[in-house]
Design a protein that fits this description.
The complex is a heterodimer of chains A (341) and B (501).
Chain A: H1 6-41, H2 48-73, H3 81-98, H4 104-129, H5 133-152, H6 164-171, E1 173-174, E2 177-178, H7 179-197, H8 199-209, H9 211-216, H10 221-247, H11 258-268, H12 280-299, H13 305-335
Antiparallel strand pairs in A: 1-2
Helix pairs in contact in A: 1-12, 1-13, 2-7, 2-10, 2-11, 2-12, 3-4, 3-5, 3-10, 4-5, 4-10, 6-10, 7-8, 8-10, 11-12
Chain B: E1 8-17, E2 20-30, E3 35-39, H1 46-53, E4 61-66, E5 69-70, H2 76-81, E6 84-87, H3 99-104, H4 118-132, H5 147-160, E7 165-169, H6 177-192, E8 196-200, H7 204-210, E9 213-218, E10 221-227, H8 233-241, E11 259-268, E12 272-280, E13 284-289, H9 295-303, E14 310-315, E15 318-319, H10 325-330, E16 333-336, H11 340-343, H12 351-356, H13 360-363, H14 371-384, H15 401-413, E17 419-423, H16 431-446, E18 450-454, H17 458-464, E19 467-472, E20 475-481, H18 487-495
Parallel strand pairs in B: 3-8, 3-9, 6-7, 7-8, 13-18, 13-19, 16-17, 17-18
Antiparallel strand pairs in B: 1-2, 1-4, 4-5, 9-10, 11-12, 11-14, 14-15, 19-20
The structure holds adenosine-5'-triphosphate and magnesium ion.
Adenosine-5'-triphosphate (ATP) binds next to β2, α1 and α15 of chain B.
Chain lengths: 341, 501
Amino acid sequence: MTAVGLPGVTARRSSLDLVLRARELGIVLALALLVAVTAISNPRFLSAQSIRDILLGTAILAVLAVGQAVVVITRNIDLSVGSVLGLSAFTVGTLLRDNPGLPVVVALLVGAGVGGVCGALNGVLVRYGNVPALVVTLGTLYVVRGITYFWAGGQQINADELPAGFLDFGNATLLSVPYLVLIALLVLVVTGLVLRNYRAGRELYAMGSSPQAAKLAGIAVGRRTVVAFLVSGALAGLAGVLFAARFGTIDAAAGTGYELNVVAAVVVGGVAVFGGSGSVWGAALGALLLTTIGSALAVLEINQFWQQAIVGGLILLAIGADRLVAARVAASLKKRGSHVS
Amino acid sequence: MATDTPVLRMRDVSKSFGAVAAVQNVSFDLYGGEAHALVGENGAGKSTLVKMLAGVHRPDSGSIELDGTPIELATPADAKAAGIAVIYQEPTLFPDLSVAENIAMGRQPLGRFKTIDRAAMHAQAEQLFARLGVSIAPNRPARGLSIADQQLVEIAKALSADARVVVMDEPTAALTGVEVERLFAVARSLRDDGAALVFISHRFEEITALCEKVTILRDGKHVSTDPLADLSVDEMVRRMVGRDLDALFPKQDVTPGAVVLSVRGLRRDPVFADIDFEVRAGEIVALAGLVGSGRSEVVQSIFGVDPRDGGTVEVGGRKLKPGSPRAAMAAGVALVPEDRRQQGLLMELSIERNVTLPRSRALSQLGFLTGSSERRSAKEWTTRLKTKYGRLSDEVGTLSGGNQQKVVLAKWLSMAPKLLIVDEPTRGIDVGTKAEVHRLMSNLAAEGVAVLMVSSELPEVLGMADRVLVMREGRLVATLDRSEATEQSVMFAATGQEVTV
Ligand SMILES: Nc1ncnc2c1ncn2[C@@H]1O[C@H](COP(=O)(O)OP(=O)(O)OP(=O)(O)O)[C@@H](O)[C@H]1O
Ligand SMILES: [Mg+2]
């Protein structure tokens, strides 16, 4: 039998690591290139206001993407996040309009709570209904949006109806970092840590990697599925509050179509659609990249329609890269037959 | 040695799947410090019994007692909590997670703030592998592990559980001598520490080497439970099969014809190099060697599933395009792969669909698959291999492990190839059918098919092959004629050392 020395294994492992890290590196490089090109052709792109806009937009998308990543890692998908964001934003807006004294923290909690309920509903339907998540959440996408429309009845909440304290929260900064960004970072770090370092997090990866093996390993697959959807829903609800604070104007259509941006961010960020791999960091980077592309196109005065084509291209590129990397990795793993006696 | 009262009792348990009564009123007791063998033909109900112990299936009737108290094993988690560790027949790894994590899942060592202590987790995996005498890097993902390695990881997983009852459902199917010995050494030490072992295998020499007691199942029913010392292998076989068995290895003498397969300088870095050999029509050539010596890789490269870095492969005088199984199939080559679950079967499709898949084109008329010809051919081949199933339209995934193997064999044997490559033809297949598989291979050879066989079972190699090619560390180190090939000569070439068999 071939003896494979351990030093060799570690050496080869680091090169393998590099391949796996390539996604994050790739996104960072693409970002750098994009920023450089845009800034050269129009320096306004690097103005404080423009950067702030990008960061605020990213914060909301990243919170959604983190939640989506949690669900996708378990080999599911949550298409209802845009609608949940809308419902949460409208609920919190209404609440604040009627109770101007409400602290911001309560608003955040209410939003997350509303989203959490929607998410739990998704989770329960997926678990007990034995229906694919794609179908269930497509259903709740329409149902939740319908409820919001019905409730709003055509009315809109304007910025001047919202308490100043809440709008301040949307603009205020700590050490010149917007609060919204701080919240997004907090969500990202906490979720990232749980997924990486806690048993519960690893079980989510295990479920996505092989649902059958997960069941045999004694993982409470059903319960974890519900939790994953609950997290995604709660984060979508939280994102709804951030949305309300940022824009100040809320109608029943808030967040329409967001689900596609979110899924795009997650896929571009390297979370495998078949579950089991990827990280929330990647998903957040994906959100940053997509938001930056949107801004850059506006600054470069390129037709917004191009944005969709570019995002589509990126998704295809990401999936292509995944395949390529997977094939490479498979080949390198196969060569490292590790038998020794 | 063994405890006086049973650690675990199964009392009159039954389990049916629809119309199939997989297990009917089976009872047996497991004692601490004792290794208990479970034997029976493919589909006899061994795995189903095991899965009831594992909390995967709930018995329809009957009860399970742990230390004399009835226990409800509703989920795998319950069984785990009760101290029952199971190695399933089919590997159950998480391909995206690291090997160490696969082993520790659910039991990861925790450090500060209840976070997973990765260093400790890796150390634990390394320790387990050291005990088993293998070196698999704990930090590599499980994806891409060979079947033998997967099985070793499964074994490590079960060992890490510190269980009182360790159930092993054909853990040795993909392993060869050295690894089996290591596993047994570890299993014996577990047993001597007081664990109760359940061991399932179709290889009797393993059962006699490890176990003290044996329970025999036939068609889901309990036949007998005896101390192994009181039972000869022949008697065991008779009780399993319900009749006397024909001779194994019914090899027919054939005069070899023209060269069908010619391999020159085949190389794939760093797995194997300098592979030269020929197989003639009517010949059965065996590739022998230890697990990891590159045998499977060579045949996969010949067939084109794996790429090659150099050399030529000719079939019937025509060069084969590298890396193209389609071209190989078009040239009349069939490969029964080692990893049958992943490479050989579509679990959700019906049995008949699986059997006829490679020939769908030939069976179709005007491009349409006609159900009847498909069914007829599927029926013929599954019957020849004594496959046990409910209906041909059942999903392959519901078959027992050995019966799934038979479906893969049926699928390729029915293709009437010019060159048949079989990787481990009888892995996981019961004694009764083994003889049938051997007869089929021998018949095919007599009809002029060239057969290339990879096998880890020495008796099979010696009984079936006209020539034995022995591989060691990726090289062809010996070619032995039928007359020269003995256990000693093959093992000597495979290990490079004098061995006492
Ligand atoms: N999930 C299932 N659905 C339907 N039938 C099943 C299922 N699992 C097992 N069976 C049937 O139960 C019977 C017993 O199968 P089991 O897997 O226990 O056999 P086994 O003794 O382990 O055989 P082998 O030696 O081939 O592994 C078989 O006829 C099989 O087809
Ligand atoms: Mg079985």
